[in-house]
């Protein structure tokens, strides 16, 4: 469902590795690495899926060449930090943690579901020995569901996989919250919270995660950024109101969209992109709902996050598919304001612009609308 995250990660990775601001008390780290993979020629690290809003580090070596299977990455961090490897060919590792010290790592292949072990990092040791065992079974179940996905599956089977993975995410959130309550000084807990927030957007459980953190973590620049973003995004959670926005229509005209003045009882605001396969796979099912309802009851505003590089692909796709609902392009930062870091992402609004649902499946939307129709 979220395979578009890798595309976003690829776009930002090498732009982001050297662009973070540090406080004055910097601390050096060194990562000495070896790999047996002859295909790995260039290597780098970044905070991966964690928003740059929360990341506080600097990489002094930038892209690193791997020579005879060896590499060295150096940088500065104020406190333990989460990272991921990425190669010049686009391979991504699982999350790992570095301390402000000299550490080492060895890997053969990089896999997004497999975290490399960092030797001499107390924080990574905590992650490997204390946290990973708590979610081992959930991770295995999620990988099994993910590997069972293919585009030839029936809609029923696809829905089962999506719902199954969503349930696992919810269970992992509960595990993480319990871990933070038990380990309030854990940088592992803080960074996993930051990554979850960055990938999936606001969830009320994030409030509890933040509150479980010690003052020590809350007072770090990352902790302060988490608090600020929670304050900002809380306004746009369920029961909050969707902000008005200037959006570009398909015909090229910029327009002010006032979401508090809607003609339909319910409006789906669907964030997507022309390069997002999971987004596009949903359209036939969304179309069924659209055709089975009246515009007085239900309407759709699709908001694409395509940029200037992919805007032509957006235009080409819409001309070909001729989808009947409203199409807009976000060129003024609406997705950023809402802290949307991956697509698909969606909101369901009532006719006053109040957020009724957020980040739901098509099946959940269908069930909600059918319930509301029976109530009418």
Describe this structure in words.
There is one protein chain. The protein has 376 residues and is of the alpha+beta class. It folds into three domains: 4-119, Immunoglobulin-like, CATH 2.60.40; 123-234, no CATH class; 245-375, Glutaredoxin, CATH 3.40.30.10. The chain contains eleven helices and 16 strands. The chain has helices spanning 4-16, 122-147, 155-182, 187-200, 205-212, 215-218, 221-234, 277-291, 311-321, 334-337, 362-375; strands spanning 28-35, 42-46, 57-59, 64-65, 70-77, 81-87, 96-98, 102-107, 118-119, 245-249, 254-257, 266-272, 298-304, 326-329, 345-350, 355-358. Strands 11-10-14-13-12-15-16 form a seven-stranded mixed beta sheet, covered by helices on one side. Helix 2 (122-147) runs antiparallel to helix 3 (155-182), helix 3 runs antiparallel to helix 4 and helix 3 (155-182) runs parallel beside helix 5. The radius of gyration is 22 Å and the shape is globular.
Any chance you could write out the topology, listing elements then pairs?
Elements lengths: L3 H13 L11 E8 L6 E5 L10 E3 L4 E2 L4 E8 L3 E7 L8 E3 L3 E6 L10 E2 L2 H26 L7 H28 L4 H14 L4 H8 L2 H4 L2 H14 L10 E5 L4 E4 L8 E7 L4 H15 L6 E7 L6 H11 L4 E4 L4 H4 L7 E6 L4 E4 L3 H14 L1
Parallel strand pairs: 1-8, 12-13, 13-14
Antiparallel strand pairs: 1-5, 2-4, 2-6, 3-5, 6-7, 8-9, 10-11, 10-14, 12-15, 15-16
List the defining traits of the structure above:
376 residues, Immunoglobulin-like, Glutaredoxin, 3 domains, 7-stranded mixed β-sheet, 5-stranded mixed β-sheet, globular, disordered N terminus
């Amino acid at each position: 469902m979220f395979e578009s995250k890798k595309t976003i990660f690829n776009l930002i990775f090498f732009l982001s590795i050297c662009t973070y601001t540090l406080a004055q008390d910097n601390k050096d780290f060194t990562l000495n690495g070896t790999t047996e993979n002859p295909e790995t020629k260039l290597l780098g690290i970044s905070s991966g899926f964690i928003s740059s809003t929360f990341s506080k580090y600097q990489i002094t070596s930038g892209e690193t060449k791997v020579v005879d299977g060896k590499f060295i990455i150096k940088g500065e961090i104020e406190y333990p930090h989460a990272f991921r490897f990425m190669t010049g060919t686009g391979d991504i590792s699982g999350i790992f943690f570095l301390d402000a010290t000299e550490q080492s790592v060895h890997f053969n292949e990089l896999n997004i579901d497999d975290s490399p072990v960092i030797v001499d990092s107390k924080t990574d040791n905590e992650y490997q020995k204390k946290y990973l065992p708590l979610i081992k079974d959930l991770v295995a179940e999620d990988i099994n569901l993910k590997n069972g996905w293919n585009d030839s599956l029936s809609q029923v089977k696809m829905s089962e996989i999506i719902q199954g993975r969503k349930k696992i995410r919810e269970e992992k959130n509960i595990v993480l919250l319990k871990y933070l309550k038990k380990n309030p000084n854990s940088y592992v807990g803080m960074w996993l919270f930051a990554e979850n927030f960055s990938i999936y957007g606001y969830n009320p459980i994030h409030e509890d995660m933040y509150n479980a953190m010690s003052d020590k973590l809350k007072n770090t620049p990352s902790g302060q950024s988490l608090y600020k973003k929670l304050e900002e995004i809380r306004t746009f959670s369920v029961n909050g109101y969707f902000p008005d926005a200037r959006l570009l229509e398909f015909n090229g005209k910029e327009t002010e969209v006032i979401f508090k003045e809607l003609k339909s009882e319910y409006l789906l605001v669907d964030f997507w992109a022309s390069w997002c396969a999971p987004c596009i796979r949903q359209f036939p099912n969304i179309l069924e709902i659209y055709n089975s309802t009246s515009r007085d009851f239900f309407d759709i505003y699709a908001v694409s996050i395509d940029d200037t590089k992919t805007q032509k692909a957006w235009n080409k796709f819409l001309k070909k598919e001729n989808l009947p609902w409203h199409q807009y392009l976000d060129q003024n930062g609406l997705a950023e304001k809402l802290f949307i870091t991956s697509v698909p992402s969606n909101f369901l609004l009532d006719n006053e612009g109040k957020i009724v649902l957020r980040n739901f499946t098509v099946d959940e939307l269908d069930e909600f609308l059918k319930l509301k129709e029976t109530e009418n």
